[in-house]
Amino acid sequence: MNKRKVILICDDEEGIRESLKLILENDYDLVFAQNGGEAINVVRTTPIDITILDIKMPKMDGLETLKEIMRINPKSKVIIATGYKSVDIAKEAINIGAIDYIVKPFDSEAILRSIEKL
Amino acid sequence: MTLLSTSYLLASIFIISIGILVASKGYKNPINRSFSVVCLATFLWLFFYSLMLNNNFGNGLIFAKIGRSAVPYIPVALTHYTFNFLNIKRASLIIFFLYLYATVMALLTLLTPLNFSELTKYSWGLYPKGKPLILFEFIICFLITFMIIATLLHHYFNRKKSLTLSELNKLKCILVSIGIFSFATIDYLPKLGIDIIPVGNTLVIIFVSLNAYAILKHRMFDINIAIRKGVVYSLLITILTLLYFVLIFLLENVFRGLVGYKSTSLTIIIIIFFIVLFQPLKDKIQFIVDKYFFQGSIGQIKQENIQLLKELQRSERLKSVGTLAAGMAHEIKNPLTSIKIFTEYLPKKYHDKEFIDKFERIVSGEVKKINDIVSQLLDFAKPRPLEIRESNIQKLMDETLDLLSSNFINYNITMIKTYSAITNFKMDPTQIKQVFLNLIINGIESMKESGGTLTISIGLSDLEYVCISIEDTGCGISEKDLGHIFDPFFTTKETGSGLGLSIVHSIIKKHNGKIDVESFIGKGTKFIVYLPRI
Questions:
Q1: Exposure of A29 by Cβ count < 10 A (0-12 exposed, 13-18 middle, 19+ buried)?
Q2: Which of B50, B161, B235, B398 could form a disulfide with B8 if both were Cys (CB 3.0 to 4.6 A apart)?
Q3: Nearest Cβ partner of B491 from A58, A84, A106?
Q4: How does pLDDT run across B278-299, given as a tens digit for each residue?
Q5: What is the CATH number of the domain that holds B502?
Q6: Are B99 and B119 in the same domain?
Q7: Is residue B301 situated within a structural domain?
Q8: DSSP state of B402
Q9: Cβ–Cβ below 8 Å for A83 and B334
Q10: Which residues of B touch A106 (CB under 8 A)?
Q11: Which residue out of A18, A23, A35 would a mutagenesis test of the B interface target, given it has the greatest number of B Cβ atoms within 10 Å?
């Protein structure tokens, strides 16, 4: 039997964390972080296969968090999830090292498709 | 000096003065900088040509070479100036190669006979006798000028509807001035053996005058009215003062010639006479310069100020609407995502009690969030009109503090109040209370973790304004964020819509007041509100 992948969900909104939990809990092991700082601590201490990261978060935003995650582990697979439909942000995230970019409001299909691609 | 060489000299002095003026008022601005480079290159061309036109064949050739070596830089610097003005980015490589071309051409002109090696004598003066390289330079100059005008026209027709009146005027001004300046390429013709009087100097004056007009009338380089007051008048007054000294000196000499000896007392009398005369004369000059040279009548100045203010308000409003729309879209997308996912799973998990509990909690919470955002947005976008009445500001502050008193105890916050005696004045008490509430909550939030001191003072800043300062010793706001705190939806907090401070700003603006903020990371933040005593 294949080992279940571990997904880190980093979003300051409880609703988003719970929604992603609904979509992913059957097939993946989930770890949650409410902000960039928490996400970085998790990445430092726990082996993470995929990270789903919100862009707009207080204190440390998603792009800064992404930079730090890529610094800790340059092979990290990070999917950015955001409400901004901005090509510039997507480009910046991809340049930093994100693997995919999902625009809110997403549906379960979009999330699963993006993760299964990896 | 011939008439033509004098006109070249005067034009060169004129253009370098404008170039220095523009550079001194904003050298860091790329528009100012590139315009000054245009002025510098044009000055070198005109100045050395004025010497050449008036000189013998030997020295004339040296002056012609120096003057000519600056010419390739003119269309290049004009391109740079136009690109900066139109905010065209990603053109740095083109600009680099254009400057490289100009430098190569300048060196070829200075060091080799490829461009020209002798002067021709025309009826109006000496002029370089061009060689094939000058034809090449002429073609390149023509192409560059064509490109500049095409770019400007393209921007003019494409952005016509999105530009404000002031921006459109600037664009028109620069388009016309460069269009006229481009005719200076006619000056290549005498070099190619065609006997035509060079007109570049006249066109330069028109180009610079139009740009100077744009600077002063349409604030093209963000140089405001202070230039007039500061530079033009000081120059005039300096000239006037020098004239006085010359006059005093002459009168003294005349007197000495008539009477036969020098009189100190007469000198003093003359000086006093001029001092008395000086102020009204200065005022008269100022009035004449204002009326005929810069702005027209006082009525026109007022009219223009009203128009500028309207444009400013319109652009600020549009900017706010854009920021609001972007912020609102983002804020609403989060709760929408949760609602979407939870409703998607509802048919599958209808019998799962844990899911239904979460559904109730999260979905109703998210709906409330959307409702709050929309309500706050409506408050911000369509704020209710001011209900002005005489109120006591200290009383309003005390009422606000009472509302929040439990927070001070809970978060270990000490409060210091300093009220100086102020009579009641007219304001909208409910909205001012909202301002205090938002600012104090901000202070409390920043001191939530480790407590601190909230210092509130109310006093008079001057006869017209009441000054209210709210200072905390909390975490402070970073320099990067400080410029955005009044932007709608900007927040650094875990919770909060980011509309609080923009509402504060909007209310204060409606009262014709202003708000300042000082903040240092780790030390705290101080908001100072100034309200007019209407």
A1: middle
A2: B50
A3: A58
A4: 666 666 766 666 665 555 555 5
A5: 3.30.565.10
A6: yes
A7: no
A8: H
A9: yes
A10: 337, 340
A11: A18
Q: How many CB atoms lie within 10 A of CB A53?
A: 26
Per-residue pLDDT reduced to its tens digit, B411-469: 888 889 888 867 688 899 888 988 898 899 889 888 988 889 999 999 887 667 889 99
State which residues of chain B have pLDDT below 50: 220-230
Shared domain for B372 and B395, answered yes or no, is no
Q: What are phi and psi of B117, to 5 degrees?
A: -135, 0
Chain position carrying tokens 């380089």: B221
Would residue A1 count as lying in a domain? no
Please check the confidence at residue A73 and state whether its pLDDT lies above 60. Answer: yes
Can you say whether the dihedral through the CA atoms of B359, B365, B371, B374 is positive or negative?
Answer: negative
Q: What letter represents residue B308's amino acid?
A: L
- B328 in a domain, yes or no? yes
How many separate domains does chain B show?
4
Nearest to B223 by CA among B238, B233, B212: B212
Nearest to A84 among B330, B338, B362 (CB): B330
Are B14 and B99 contained in the same domain?
A: yes
Number of domains, chain A = 1
Residues of A in contact with B355 (CB under 8 A): 22
- The answer as to whether A40 is a domain residue is yes
Among B267, B296, B325, the domain boundary falls at: B296
What DSSP line would sit under B95-142, residue for residue? Answer: HHHHHHHHHHHHHHHHH-SSSEEEEEEETTEEEEEE-HHHHHHHHHHH
pLDDT of residue B85: 82
Same domain, B239 and B217: no
B185, B200 Cβ separation under 8 angstroms = no
Domain coverage including residue B336 = 306-381
Structural domain including A91 reads 6-116
Question: Which of residues 18 through 57 in chain A touch B, CB cutoff 8 A?
Answer: 18-20, 22-23, 35, 56
Distance of CA B195 to the CA centre of its chain: 45
Pairing of strands A100-103, A77-82: parallel
* B497 token code pair: 């819509």
Domain identity same for B48 and B110: yes
Q: What ipTM was estimated for this complex?
A: 0.89
Nearest Cα residue in chain A from B493: A58
